[in-house]
Amino acid sequence: MSSSGSQSEARGSQPEPELVDxxxxxxxxxxxxxxxxxxxxxxxxxxxxxxxxxxxxxITVLSxxxxxxxxxxxxxxxxxxxxxxxxxxxxxxxVVVGSLPGGRVARLTHFGSFDGLGASWDRLGSWMRERGxxxxxxxxxxxxxxxxxxxxxxDLRTELNWPVTG
Length: 166
Fold this sequence. Notes:
Protein name: GyrI-like domain-containing protein
Helix content: 10-25%
Region (Disordered): 1-20
CATH architecture: Alpha-Beta Barrel
Domain AraC effector-binding: 15-165
CATH topology: Multidrug-efflux Transporter 1 Regulator Bmrr, Chain A
InterPro entries: AraC_E-bd, GyrI-like, Reg_factor_effector_dom_sf
CATH class: Alpha Beta
Oligomer: single chain
Pfam family, one: GyrI-like
Radius of gyration: 17 Å
Mean pLDDT: 90
Structural class: alpha+beta
Distance between the termini: 47 Å
Number of domains: 1
């Protein structure tokens, strides 16, 4: 037997959450309050506008795409979709300047389809509570793996980031 793990073994076991320290980051985003059923359409339209504006303004993208969620999810989600950029974007086509907070962040890498993200967020929240960490209202997902129509959803990787307060 080999002692090195295979990729399929890595997929089967989710990694443990961790605390990381981040620097604040300038972002180019599209903001919206969106019904949950309209989330995919919002992401698709936002990424189209972001690509056009970022290319036209010759801005360098420094991160994979992310979705920043404000407050507690309900029937609608208050969110920003975008990228970390090397400088501020000029507002155009609904694309505006945003930011990701710096400081201590609880992070969990989710492997698998987006359908399982809710359970991973719950797991990260429980991990934080077990350690007496207070969660900020805003949190974000970084879509490390860009989804494609023909990919296996088990190959998706999403970083869940939840700032710690206090």
